[in-house]
Amino acid sequence: MALANVLLLSQIAGHVLLFILSLCIVLPLSINLNQFCDHCLLFTTGKWREEDGMFDVHWASNGYCYFPLITGVFLFIISAIQIYRYARMKEEESFIALFVDVVLGIWMLAMSILSAIFITLGFIVWCDGMTERFPSCETSAGQNIIRGDTEKINTSGFYIEMGTTQFGAWGAFAISVGIGVIALLKLIHNHQVRNIKVSMYLERQRLVNQQHYDGRSTPPMVSGSGASSDSDPNK
């Protein structure tokens, strides 16, 4: 019982942290997409033009940004539901509920690691282009580097936004590992308890059946004094 309580409190704490980290993914990434006029910065490449010093950008697919964004929303919703569910839990979870928790933990783990990889590698590709002209990627933030005829790209906060998103994604991956391990431990513990209960029930049934069989196979006892008194000829 004490182990179950510790694991339950650990799950609540883990989902609270995951709830916060999901906001670190969704909010800055949404702001960056808005400032870049719905263009994805991740894996975007280009060349610096000699005539005007502007960055001739070749935008990458928006899917590199939308997948981490969807992941953050998914983690936000699942964490909120799980926090509410665990906080109101009074009875022991069923095997099906524990199995669903393990499956959700695996999904969160897979989506968070893919998002973290997309953000990290994609940001490296973007910064490689920026460092061709600037001493560091951070110093290029806020510079007028992309010319747009119909849209104005705001690069003032992309370094902080992507840094925060990257922190949220890797933090969500680490927390998802812990949540998945805890869910798996609870599933294994529940399975062991069920096996113990089944074994105890079978053993109890075996003992009951054995006692019943022994009772029927034992011949009835006849009192020696009664038998001798009935056969005594002097009475």
Automatic annotation (TrEMBL):
Spans through the membrane: 12-31, 66-84, 96-126, 167-188
Source superkingdom: Eukaryota
One Pfam assignment: Claudin_TMEM179-179B
Skewed-composition ranges (Polar residues): 225-235
Membrane topology according to the record: Multi-pass membrane protein
Entry keywords, A to Z: Membrane, Transmembrane, Transmembrane helix
Region (Disordered): 213-235
Main location: membrane
Subcellular location: Membrane
Family as reported in the entry's similarity comment: Belongs to the TMEM179 family.
This protein's name: Transmembrane protein 179
Organism: Drosophila rubida
